[in-house]
Recover the amino acids of this structure.
């Protein structure tokens, strides 16, 4: 396996002078060199050949001993020096100080086909940033990260990707239900791939220590490598940086809302500086349309990171980023303008996205109201978001209200919809929507096709990942590949896979792993 190594982070940014792999505070540095822990008995479960080919790794190479060794952390690729990044973060609204790559180890960066990638192992042992934890990851959370990052990519959402899922052969102790019953689980390692793994928190930690020198180095590095559109060499380039990060973040969140993805832990250390979805932990997919839903049990009291708040939280996080890079600019007004413009930009982008979900092309006066009314009607009884929007494309202006209603009937979880009042409210909305469709100029076949391009038929429902996890714990990995193949074409009709276009089964309603997860997931 020959890779075109091209490291930039460790070459251009300051390293921690201490080489000992002991948990500690790391000052005046962006990272610490650290070697992955050698796994006991690594076994490849799943390699993604499309990601491998982006990196110049052939399918044959991805099945080789060399691949297994390098991406399990057993062997360090020649002339590379793995490292963990130093970052801080605001967790659930509070400054948490130094966090850093506690269970991630960056291997190297490479160039291939004029593209640049950084590769990182998740779950390959302790680093100086592991604090009180072990630096390891369990198979269940690794399967969730591996499948979801690829599913998001094929949905068209900006995300880190996953090259491989490898069993480490080591046991990891976890108290999965937080009920005082820790148990051994299988350990696993995912190799993540992204242009960059820098987070808002990388800037925050330097700012919190008044390390303006390195803060500037990191900001310049970020602009140089990931924001080539920023041309200015003056201080205003940092204002432009905030503006560009805000734009990318906004786009990412709008896509989350479009597909019904709830990140679950939008702490500033989980916000990518290049606008990638990063750190798939206790994330979840909205099944019944409930904007207050969060999959994260750690957040169940305040629901800070609920579905309907993700836009606001992104802005909150951007304020923290702005505060962090402020010392480089000292122009509060310029920053405020960017941040104050965000809500309006977000609302506009949200409305355009929702109009597309509804198949509406030319904006009309009452469209905003129509969308708002839909959002409240969707909450009258449990209604499955993916099924609802997918089947909405089958509406026709030639159908009666009852006939159109039948198109979406399978999206309701309970039979209550036939209770008079709720049905009446649906009829009112359907009538308004169909009248609105009559103002469209595109024909119905085109409308349906364009709706189906953005309303996914297949998403990684929480119970689907759970089924793959249960099989994998028994040593059967077929479902991982089956789901991966399914989720590669989320917008296409796949008649042979119709069973996955179904509401969450009843058994999954309260089962651990199927709806609620904790941060340790
Ligand atoms: P997360 O909630 O996964 O984004 O993690 C927050 C912080 O805790 C990051 O600094 C992680 O590196 C660290 N962390 C999470 N899990 C572990 C673990 N098992 N071992 C060491 N550090 C961890
Ligand atoms: Mg994290």
């Amino acid at each position: 396996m020959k890779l075109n190594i091209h490291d930039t982070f460790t070459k251009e940014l300051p390293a921690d002078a201490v080489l000992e792999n002991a948990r500690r505070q790391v000052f005046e540095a962006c990272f610490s060199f650290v070697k992955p822990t050698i796994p006991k008995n690594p076994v490849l479960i799943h390699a993604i050949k499309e990601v491998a080919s982006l990196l110049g790794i052939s399918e044959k190479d991805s099945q080789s001993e060399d691949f297994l060794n390098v991406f399990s952390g057993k062997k360090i690729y020649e002339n590379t020096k793995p490292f963990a990044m130093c970052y801080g973060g605001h967790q659930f609204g509070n400054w948490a100080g130094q966090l850093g790559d506690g269970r991630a180890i960056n291997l190297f960066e490479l160039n291939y086909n004029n593209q640049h990638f950084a590769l990182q192992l998740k779950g390959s042992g302790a680093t100086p940033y592991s604090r009180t934890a072990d630096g390891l990851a369990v198979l269940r959370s690794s399967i969730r990260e591996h499948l979801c990052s690829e599913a998001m990519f094929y949905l068209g959402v900006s995300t880190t990707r996953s090259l491989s899922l490898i069993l480490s052969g080591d046991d990891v102790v976890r108290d999965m239900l937080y009920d005082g019953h820790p148990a051994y689980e299988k350990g696993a390692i995912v190799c993540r791939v992204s242009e960059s793994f820098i987070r808002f928190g990388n800037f925050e930690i330097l700012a919190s220590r008044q390390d303006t020198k390195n803060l500037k180095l990191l900001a310049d590095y970020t602009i140089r490598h990931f924001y080539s559109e920023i041309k200015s060499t003056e201080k205003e380039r940092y204002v432009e940086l905030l503006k560009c990060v805000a734009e990318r973040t906004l786009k990412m969140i709008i896509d989350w809302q479009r597909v019904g993805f709830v990140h679950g832990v939008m702490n500033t250390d989980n916000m990518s500086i290049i606008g990638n979805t990063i750190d798939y932990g206790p994330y979840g997919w909205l099944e019944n349309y409930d904007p207050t839903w969060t999959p994260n049990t750690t957040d169940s009291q305040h629901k800070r990171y609920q579905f309907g708040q993700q836009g606001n939280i992104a802005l909150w996080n951007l304020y923290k980023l702005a505060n962090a890079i402020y010392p480089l600019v000292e122009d509060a007004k310029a920053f405020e303008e960017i941040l104050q413009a965000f809500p309006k930009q977000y609302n506009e982008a949200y409305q355009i996205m929702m109009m597309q979900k509804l198949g509406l092309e030319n904006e009309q006066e009452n469209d905003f109201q129509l969308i708002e009314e839909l959002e409240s009607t969707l909450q009258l009884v449990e209604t499955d978001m993916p099924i609802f929007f997918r089947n909405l494309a089958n509406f026709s202006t030639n159908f009666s209200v009852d006939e159109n209603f039948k198109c979406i009937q399978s999206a309701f979880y309970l039979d209550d919809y036939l209770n008079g009042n709720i049905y009446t409210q649906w009829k009112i909305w359907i009538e308004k929507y169909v009248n609105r469709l009559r103002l469209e100029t595109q024909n119905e076949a085109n409308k349906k096709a364009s709706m189906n391009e953005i309303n996914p038929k297949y998403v990684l429902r929480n119970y689907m990942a759970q089924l793959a996890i249960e099989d994998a714990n028994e040593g059967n990995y077929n479902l991982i590949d089956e789901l991966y193949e399914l989720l590669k074409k989320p917008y296409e009709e796949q008649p042979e896979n119709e069973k996955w276009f179904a509401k969450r089964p009843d058994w999954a309603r309260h089962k651990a792993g199927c709806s609620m997860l904790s941060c340790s997931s």
